Amino acid sequence: MRVLITAGPTREPLDPVRFISNRSTGKMGFALAQAAEAAGHEVTLIAGPVTLPTPERVTRVDVETALEMLAAVETHLPQADVYISCAAVADWRPEVCSPVKLKKAGMDGVLKLVRNPDILKTIRPLKGNRIFVGFAAETGTPEPEAERKLREKGLDLIVANDVTAPGAGFATDTNCVTLLFPDGRREAISLRSKLEIAQEIMAKIATLR
Ligand code: C5P
Hints:
CATH architecture: 3-Layer(aba) Sandwich
CATH class: Alpha Beta
Bound molecules: cytidine-5'-monophosphate
């Protein structure tokens, strides 16, 4: 299969030195890229700003903002059989990005934000018979929110996790997740390395084809 993966955060600039972003490190998405490549798939990895090395034989495309990530997904989706949206896309961006550093004195303490597009929802009309996989990182019991996102985003599988659970979440090397399918099936994967979780997710995706 040809697998397209997004990973990491996006970074939304206010000016050349400041941005808003989130705590995603890209570890889960990079583990998925590594697991997919090891399973014999052709992998393109669209990465937000992260400090991780590119897994061997994986084609990497670096982006910074949500709008750049959307454009890269639109470019690479036609060549993909599977799209795994693992990135923690910033929901909002500053309305204006100043080309020069903003002066403290000129700032009034109010930052005007505008919504970023939801990448999965934007590309949904292009889905065809591709498999779309999403992630739902929540604080607390993730399943109800994940269930809603699975339906709203038209996914074939969503991977839910509680980012506040011990050993789970953003900067850790381990995770524990629940896989939710549109037919109501749920499968829990207990605490293990992100690479092992990624291998299980890839094996599950292969059964969806
Ligand atoms: O941020 P949220 O919890 O809605 O993310 C759920 C899924 O939607 C994830 O797979 C994420 O990559 C994707 N997403 C997206 N575009 C956004 C926000 C999230 O594709 N703007």
